[in-house]
Each structure stands twice: as C-alpha cells, then as structure tokens.
Amino acid sequence: MLRIGLVGAGGIAREHLKSILAIEDIKVVAIADPVTESAEALAAQAGATAYADYHNLIGKVDAAWICTPTFLHPEQTISLAEAGIHVFCEKPIALDLESADQMIAAATRGGVQLMIGHVIRYYPETIAIKQFLDDGTLGDPVYVYGRRLMVQGGIHRVEWRQSAKTAGGNALESGIHEVDTVRTLGGEVESVTARIVYGDANDPDIDTDFRALFKLQSGATGAVDISIHTPVREWNWGIVGTKATAYSPRRGEVRVVRIADKEEQTVEVQKVHDQERQLNRCMLAENQAFVDAIRQESPVPISGKDGRRNLEIILAAHQSSREGRVVAI
Questions:
Q1: pTM of this structure
Q2: For a surface tag, which of 28, 32, 88, 89 has the fewest beta carbons within 10 Å of its beta carbon?
C-alpha cells in the first residue's frame, strides 16, 4: 500500500485530497503546512498526522503531492525527491528554467517519478476534441486555441499570487493551462509572439492580459487569450481543422461543425464535478495516472520536462512582449 503525504493544506490540496481518498490501496498518512490549523483540519479528513514542516514526511511517505505556492516548488520537490519520494507537483513547475532543471535532475538522482499537475489534459472536453482530431474528423489542424476571460478580483487577489516573485503572474498561473492545452491538441510550439499587459493600478506587479500567437511545428497556428479586464466569464478551447472545427463553448459540451455541409453536431461529455462523490473527476484521473505510473514503474503522462516546456513558452512570451519580436523556443 502506498503511503501518501500532502505538502500544503490550502484550496488545491483540499481538492486533491478528495480524489486521492477515492483511489484504492493507498493511504494518506501525513499533511504538512506551516499554518498548523489548516494542516490539522485536512489531516482530520484523512485520518492522517499533521505537521508544520514538510521535512517530517521523509521516511513516512512513498509519494507526496506538492500543493504550495509556486516559489516553494523547487526546494520542496528537490528535498523530497532526493529522499526517494515520488512527487506530484502542481503547476506551474517553477518560476524559472534553472529551478525546473534542478527539480528534474533531483527526481532522476532519487530514482523517483515527477509529475506536473496540468489537469486540463484530463478534462472530458479536451479528450473529446483530441479524439475528433485523431480519428480524422477534423482533418489537419490549422488553428488551435485556448481562451479564458476572468472577472477581476478573482484568483490573482490571493496574497501570494499578488507578487511576481512568488507566483510569476497571471500568464504563468492561469495562461500556462492554455499553453498546455494548445500543446496537447496541436503539438509542439516552435516560436511565439506575445503581448502582456499590466493594467491593474492596485497590483502593478501582476499582468492582467496575456495574448500570444504560436507557430506550431506542424505548421498550424496556436493562440492563447487570457484577461481579467472583463466582467464576463468565458473559457473555451478548440481546433479549427481542414475538414471541421471542434470546440468546447461550455463545460459538458463539445461542438463539431463540418466545413463541407456546415452541419453542426453537439456532443455531451461527462461533467468535471462528480456531484455524488463530491470530487473533481479530472483530478481523480490525473492522480490515478500518477499512482499507476508509480506502481507500474512506467513514465508519468505529464513529466517534469513537460512542465518545463510549458514554463519555457510562458517565459518566451514575456520576452517577446518586452522586446517586441518573435522568440524561438
């Protein structure tokens, strides 16, 4: 039986715990967070022991989920991996490429798995769109995109996210989801041109708008559009192909429109949230995949190198915005 620990006891850790507890033949034995009351509250849900210091997990767990602010990921991942503990690290992997490289190297030295939590790959909408591409329904991809409009005052207002030194900004925290979606659906990014805007006088350190165009290695175009300068909530992604377009205008639904006859097909997909079990099905899928990779000693689906690649693209987008030019990846 795998012994599991969580580092961090905030909102994302609570969501992970719900799905981890639904996985068979594992046991959550430890929760670590310097905010001891948070650690104790989460530990009580799992019948685990609470600790203030994550180092206390060493020798007690086989695998750990790192659910802490981004700036803490490298130190925590390296310490645990070098101690022989498999690590699931929430996105983004790190704030800089050197730290990401050190995390990957530590996992290699420790002989352990390192998986990065890019959960949108496991959304039913992403899986369905990818299936339409793979089975030939869409033809060759021409344009692959991810778009997210968020209400100002949302996720970026969390204290640690209000500093680029601890969170990296909106493009990194939120836009990295869309970057990973473009890569998942359209393949690798060859170059990027981007504009990143800092439009909030109350948070001048945090970017509010991130728009990027990618040249994909396939020859297709990729695009990401993120903004918190709107009272509108919108989140969609899709592929424009030579035969048809597939996109998800809302959760639980994918639409396919054929070029030849303009016929539109609406496909219902499973909801992300499992109301009966009160958990996120996509988190359950990614966490199950991590556990399976450990047990089977097989590669994880979203490796440290994958996480590094997404970070590299975001950093290249920042460079493009600063310098006003196309940046090769």
A1: 0.96
A2: 28
